[in-house]
Specification:
By secondary structure, the chain is mainly β. It has one domain. It is built from 2 helices and 9 strands; from the N terminus they run αβββαββββββ. The chain is elongated and about 50 Å long.
Amino acid sequence: MKPLASFALIAVLSVGPAGSFAQGRDGYFCTTDLATGFAFNKAKKQWVTVSFHETEKFLITRASLAELKLGNVWVVKKVGSNTPDFVCPADFTDGGYLHCKGFSEFTFNRKNNRFLSSYMIGYVTDAIEGTETASALLGQEGSNTPAIQIGRCSPL
């Protein structure tokens, strides 16, 4: 009975939080497929929809010891960067989702290897020219472009 109990303990410890180790995945390489959003047309003085030709690539990796101390389990960095764009304070859900935040949000589903990222700065945070809201605290109208991007990831 003792060997069976030892085996059970090893199996439980090797699974890790939310079963993430069971798949043996320590990270993912992600590429953006499509990106769209809104930009301010200065000539027309109005916001318009735009398509971006994004080629951003991300790495989803387990948090380093320093990042773990900050309460993060996973981090998402642009390829070539040492600074996380998104931090993920919780492990994958039972449904396979990883939810991360930064100046925007990044959600990844490891069951279909797709991600969705949103950049929600701009429009509501921009100052409207000629009004009292124009200040140093708000960016000029159109200084940021809210956007959403979708893409796919592969296990490392």
